[in-house]
Write a structure and sequence with these properties.
- This protein has 5 helices and 6 strands.
- Helix 5 links the parallel strand 4 and strand 5.
- With 107 residues, the protein is an alpha/beta fold.
- The protein has one domain: Oxidized Rhodanese, domain 1 (3-Layer(aba) Sandwich).
- InterPro entries: GlpE_sulfurtransferase, Rhodanese-like_dom, Rhodanese-like_dom_sf.
- One of its GO terms (molecular function) is transferase activity.
- Keywords: Transferase.
């Protein structure tokens, strides 16, 4: 991998497409409740990064594929690391909704 590939940002648009093709996957938005309500990707679950441990109460199967996003990709990166430390085996940081070209849902 070149040094440029190392700094390549996750592509949220490709990540959402992968989520849609993955059976039993969960799309996880780790922004604040207010950010989530201002516009989120349809069918996503909101668990803010500061409360990431709450995912354990909602998702009991640690083999569930998790696709994680935030505003820019920084919080989703932190959340991805935390989820892996909690024992989740299929966690993907898909980046930030600021680059998303699809429809968002408000409320």
């Amino acid at each position: 991998m070149s040094i440029f590939g190392f700094f390549k940002q996750a592509d949220i648009n490709a990540g959402v497409q992968e989520f849609l093709k993955t059976e039993k996957a969960v799309l996880l938005d780790v922004r604040t409740k207010e950010e989530y309500e201002s516009g989120h990707i349809e069918n996503s679950e909101n668990i803010p990064l500061q409360q990431i441990e709450k995912v354990l109460a909602k998702i009991t199967d640690k083999d569930t594929p998790l696709f994680v996003y935030c505003q820019s990709g920084a919080r989703s990166s932190s959340a991805t690391s935390a989820l892996k430390q909690m024992g989740f085996s299929h966690v993907t940081n898909i980046g930030g909704i600021s680059s998303y070209r699809g429809k968002v849902v408000k409320g």
